Inverse folding.
């Protein structure tokens, strides 16, 4: 998929654990893990906003577009 999730990078930069972030933004650790791995098809703007607020970052710090990356089949 051409959209790359860099949440793990931002967590490391901020020295925040996934468990801690999940608790602060009100989602399960499992859902945060799925988001970190890029295995989700979408993220709600309120969730993205809470992540950005907690990590003091912009959405562009978390999401990256890489042209030419292979598309997953939607079928």
């Amino acid at each position: 998929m051409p959209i790359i999730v860099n949440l793990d990078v931002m967590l490391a930069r901020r020295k925040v654990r996934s468990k801690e972030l999940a608790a602060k933004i009100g989602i399960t650790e499992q859902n945060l893990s799925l988001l970190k791995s890029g295995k989700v098809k979408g993220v709600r703007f309120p969730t993205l906003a809470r992540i950005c607020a907690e990590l003091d970052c912009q959405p562009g710090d978390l999401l990256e577009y890489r042209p030419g990356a292979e598309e997953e089949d939607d079928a």
Notes: Helices lie at 7-14, 18-25, 29-37, 45-55, 59-62. The longest strand covers residues 3-5. Residues 45-55 form the longest helix (11 residues). Residues 3-65 form a domain with the 434 Repressor (Amino-terminal Domain) fold (CATH 1.10.260.40).
